[in-house]
Amino acid sequence: MRPAQGSEYMAGLIPQSFIDDLLDRADIVDVIDRRVKLKKSGKNYMACCPFHQEKTPSFSVNPDKQFYYCFGCGASGNALGFLMDYENMEFPAAVESLADSLGMSVPREQPERREERGQRELYPLMEEAARYYQRQLREHPRKATAVNYLKGRGLTGEIAKRFDLGFAAPGWDNLLKALGTTEERRRQLKQAGMLVENESGRVYDRFRDRVVFPIRDQRGRVIGFGGRVLGDDKPKYLNSPETPIFHKGRELYGLYQARQANRQLERIIIVEGYMDVIALAQHGIQNATATLGTATGQAHLEKIFRLCQEVVFCFDGDAAGRQAAGRALEAALPCMQDGRSARFLFLPEGEDPDTLVRGQGAEHFVGLIENAVPLDSFLFDSLAVNLSLDSLDGKARLSKLAAPLLQKLPPGVYRELMFKELADRTGMATDTLSQIVAPPPAPEASAPAPSRPRQRPALTLPQTQAGPTGLVQMAILLLLHQPAVARQVEDLEPLRALEGDEVPLLLELLELLSRRPESTTHMLLGHWYGTAQGELLARLASQERLIPPEGIENEFIDTMNRLLNHPKSREFEARVDKLKHRNYADISELEKLEIVQELREKRRRDEERGRKQ
After folding, report:
1. Residue 603 in 3-state DSSP?
2. Rounded to an integer, what distance in angstroms lies between the CA atom of residue 286 and that of residue 288?
3. How does pLDDT run across 136-153, given as a tens digit for each residue?
4. Which residue of 156, 194, 332, 569 could cross-link 466, Cys pair, CB 3.0 to 4.6 Å?
């Protein structure tokens, strides 16, 4: 598995071995210090984070691990990741820039795999389609229908050009005739979703008699289209289907243009339609995006939070808008690391961002954004509708409704504050509330406490219990800190029988280190940079200062042994997991007593193991 940002480049063009060599030669301190002034602080270097506003430095650069991490906003990565985020570069450009600064030439792998070559060939074809539709908007005899529609929506020629708007003229095969000049090109157009083949075998254009909106990815490549009908056809709005290069659940319309217009994005607004994005941009609000016919998902939000620390959801104030906001809220909760912000703006009935910014002006709309409802207020106020919080029953029902949602929050200060807010609203003690929900699934990085000399490494993570999740994370942490300990694992087969979300990542790490035992920490981080797994690795790697160098190998052996020999722990975890989904009041005293006894027995076994070691 390779980093998402440019995997097709790395797989087909830039060899992974060169990426590793490049990172090995680069000095991350030098790379960052040229752009952000660093100050020595112990073994690391510190600065105020360039990715969010702060007065006290929390941006740490570790020269030993060639890794940076911000304890305020969670930004992290290696030298390439920093260039991508700070300079607003895509992965290939960052590689070229770093290589050039070191006097290195970027090699290209050959041959390229057939499926990768086929996928890459779709991009220039889609760009060609976009240019074709733009020409039709300027030259087609029936262009007036589309031009008048756009003028009626208040759009200028300048904004139409900035977003590459086009016109798919009436007719079944205009694009087919213009671009499908060979059998191979017709096949590619079908693969890219631009042509449709019906049951009888007839092939025709997907977009007909519509204003066309090219959809670009973060690198500016056309990956799909949206179309707004000009006649009576249905549906009113039509998007490209899922294709090898277009995945609706991960893409946002207008994000490329927002990044082009803003060197550093402070917030991103999510609206509902293409025209909302374009109208806001025309009025100087150039940080709006829209999902592509799907609800806002976690993948969308993680992409946004890699670029800025605040997202504002903008919805209609009707029942459908409130329902969409509820779905967005649930998607946002797992992403709400400390330092991130999500707010909700509900527009007056009958208004959308397009009509509002045209009617009331940009200043009025920005004022609404500034006063959008914070996530915590929206969550609690929505749940409290029709509940009487003056009664015990109302408070109990609010706790029961809120607890499963708060459980989705990642560990950190924000999560603790949300529980405190629930406690304040219900009058319940936070200790009581903690019994309603399960412990958080994984630790988030926070500023580490000063380390103290110990005979054994200080390796206790907040969630490292007897169960497999904590042990797997412990094993991953140790591998990140000292990759060479992977040699202690000779047989991976027993690990394949384990269950848990992080087990596949542990296996991939061990397999990679088996093939390439010379790998360093920053190579591993670079290998998964930009993926969900990479974010977990970054969080774990940020805790490295808690771990002194001695004893890592023995600790890794012990962790692997415990991981492979804990049937009682697995059985116990299964029982506890079932209890998590039941009301605390419904659990019998006998069950509670059994759990307490097993916890005591577990603690005794752990202490005995510690004395033996």
Report:
1. helix
2. 6
3. 999 999 999 999 999 999
4. 569
Please write the tens of the pLDDT for every residue from 251-281: 999 999 998 888 788 899 999 889 999 999 9
Place of tokens 């990479």: 534
Sign for the CA dihedral angle at 475, 457, 43, 339 comes to: positive
Mean of per-residue pLDDT scores for the chain: 80
* Residue positions counted in the chain: 613
Q: In angstroms, rounded to a whole number, what is the distance separating the alpha carbons of residues 561 and 563?
A: 5
SS3 232: coil
Give, as one character, the DSSP assignment of residue 48: -
Buried b (16+ CB within 10 A) or exposed e, 227-251: bbbbeeeeeeebbbeebebbebeeb
Element (H, E) at 181: none
Mean pLDDT check: name the lowest of 38-52, 96-110, 212-226. Answer: 96-110
Residue pair 222/123 in contact by the 8 Å Cβ criterion: yes
Please report, for residues 216, 222, 271, the alpha-carbon distance to residue 288 in angstroms, rounded to integers and kept in the order given: 14, 18, 7
Q: What is the mean pLDDT of residues 59-88?
A: 85
Q: How far apart are CA 183 and CA 181, in angstroms?
A: 7
Residue type, 113: R
Query: Hunting for tokens 């590619």 — which residue is that?
Result: 188
Q: Which domains does the chain have, with CATH numbers?
A: 7-101 (3.90.580.10), 114-142+156-246 (3.90.980.10), 260-372 (3.40.1360.10), 386-436 (1.20.50), 468-581 (1.10.860.10)
| Alpha carbon separation from 123 to 94, 250, 287 (Å, rounded) | 21, 17, 25
Q: What is the CB neighbour count within 10 angstroms for residue 127?
A: 16
Q: Does residue 125 register a pLDDT over 90?
A: yes
Q: What is the pTM for the complete model shown?
A: 0.58
Summarised one tens digit per residue, pLDDT across range 433-482 is 666 554 444 444 444 433 333 332 332 333 433 345 677 888 888 888 88
Q: Taking the C-alpha atoms of 224, 226, 231 and 234 in order, what is their torsion angle to the nearest 10 degrees?
A: 90
Q: Which of 84, 36, 194 is nearest to 130 (CA)?
A: 194
Q: How far apart are CA 502 and CA 521, in angstroms?
A: 18
Cβ 442 vs Cβ 469: under 8 Å: yes
